[in-house]
Amino acid sequence: MHPAPSVILFTVLSGTGYGMLFLLGYGAATRLLPPDMRFGIAAFAMAIVFITVGLLASLFHLGHPERAWRALSQWRSSWLSREGLLAVATYLPTAPFAIAWSFFGLNAGIPAVSGAIAGLLAAATVFATSKIYATLKPIQQWHNSWVTPGYLVIALMSGALWLNVLLQWRGLSRPTIAFIAAGAAAVGLAIKICYWRSIDTTPARSTPESATGLGAIGRVRLLESPHTQDNYLLREMGYRVARKHSWRLRRIALSFGFFVPCVLAGLTAAFTGKLATWTALAAALSAGLGILVERWLFFAEARHTVTLYYGHRNS
Description:
This protein is mostly helical. 68% of the residues lie in helices and 0% in strands. The protein has helices at 5-29, 37-59, 79-104, 110-134, 147-169, 175-201, 208-212, 232-237, 243-268, 273-300. The two termini are 15 Å apart. The relative contact order is 0.14.
């Protein structure tokens, strides 16, 4: 599939924002996070900016962004519609939660209830985003059991890493948040390895032989291309990335997206002062770079079944 920058930014930024919001709700409900107003202002501002910019970026991939609101009416059958409704709904409990924490220093009682609801809606929104891809049977690389866990864990890791930065900046170190970030990075590393192993070793469900019913005769190959020039289907669904480049980018994604953040996040629990702050920031920036590469690969390595018509093989 064509790795559109708008969709990559959407999934990375909104996932980070929703991960932060989930942890803010969890931290308030469990009294893990302190009701520090400056921390609250910075955390909610960052989370809401990530979420909003991500959602706005996704509109640029639409042919008619002004009609995006119509997609919300298909919630009975469309995960895209459910994602949109959940994204809008998440703002409602987030507003009183953010105001109480940021301007009144309150994150317990009723604000904590609002935070818990906001956190659950944030997690549900990321889940819905993942299901948009995981339920697409024509794309084998997405119709995979590792896709949804990967989206959820990456959102949790990204959110925890940036919350850790803000906590260290305010001198409010919470080792639990650092360990959540490190643990999520370790789990994310394992999930991505399993995901890539799965898409590399699982035989293609659809082949030219199965489509034509001529597999008993032998290998089916294209005699003549159906088109004399490039078209929309090939541009959007026929993107190909060389295997040697794919392996190199996978190593970059695993290293910067998961391994380095895991180690650095763990170290912040042992550091203090500016050293802890800079270490936490390095972990978050490294994860951001790695996840951008990971998300680019997620789209670039996906191949739609329709490309079989043009002589491409999905195996």
